[in-house]
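Weekly sync, protein design subgroup
Attendees: M.S., D.O., the rotation student, P.L. (late)

Item 1: inverse folding check
M.S. brought a backbone from last month's batch and wanted to see whether the design step gives back something sensible before we order anything. D.O. pointed out we never logged the input encoding, so this time it goes straight into the notes. Structure tokens as presented (225 positions):
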């Protein structure tokens, strides 16, 4: 196919979407836009302000008024971008176990999704973008030139997420991470609004036995003229 100006990468948590997306963005000189950070940012903000995410109306109102921005990384600490909420750098705060445990309910709130989807779509329509999320190819940018659904078993994803947490100096147990991912998969795939599923014309790649380089090579092969 001709060089795609917009690439959508969907898949469950810890399937490697962001890492693969980053490699592709670097290859093409495109913007990497991990849309999940918006829901994580709203979740973090709600936990800070309310202590929980149980009040859908309050969380949705919060999503309408906060300003979330994504900028090129200013620190070499493993981040692919700076994530700012009302000007505050919360890049690593949104990767905490507390956010992991609460982001799926927040992302299922209709008001939150409406607020975040409009901004995501506006960015995606500019082109030269690799968008990473759970509903990019189905809802946010269904006209994307290339759609990938990157999957992996929950056990493999749990080991990857645990390695990521420990690598940042955090603390977690495999069983805790595994349970959190199973719960999140259930919520993401069964929610009424924009459930996690491959787009009809998405290329499905299972990365259980593939390294990042192998996944990227398979996707690059799809972009050859």
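Designed sequence read out in the meeting:
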């Amino acid at each position: 196919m001709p060089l795609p100006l917009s690439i959508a990468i969907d898949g469950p948590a810890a399937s490697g979407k962001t890492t693969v997306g980053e490699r592709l963005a670097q290859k093409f000189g495109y913007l990497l836009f991990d849309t999940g950070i918006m829901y994580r940012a709203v979740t973090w903000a709600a936990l800070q302000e309310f202590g929980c995410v149980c009040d859908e109306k309050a969380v949705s109102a919060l999503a309408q008024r906060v300003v979330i921005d994504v900028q090129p990384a200013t620190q070499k600490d493993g981040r692919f971008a700076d994530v700012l909420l009302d000007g505050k750098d919360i890049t690593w705060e949104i990767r905490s176990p507390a956010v992991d445990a609460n982001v799926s309910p927040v992302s299922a709130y209709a008001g939150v999704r409406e607020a975040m989807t409009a901004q995501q779509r506006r960015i995606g329509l500019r082109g030269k973008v690799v968008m990473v999320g759970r509903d990019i190819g189905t809802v946010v940018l269904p006209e994307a030139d290339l759609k990938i659904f990157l999957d992996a078993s929950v056990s493999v994803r749990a080991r990857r997420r645990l390695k990521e947490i420990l690598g940042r100096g955090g603390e977690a147990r495999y069983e805790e991470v595994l349970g959190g991912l199973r719960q999140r998969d259930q919520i993401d795939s069964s929610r009424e609004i924009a459930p996690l599923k491959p787009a009809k014309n998405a290329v499905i790649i299972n990365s259980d036995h593939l390294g990042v380089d192998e996944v990227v090579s398979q996707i690059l092969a799809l972009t050859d003229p």
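Discussion: The domain at 6-222 is CATH 3.40.50.300 (Rossmann fold). The chain has nine helices and eight strands.
Action: P.L. to compare against the previous round before Friday.
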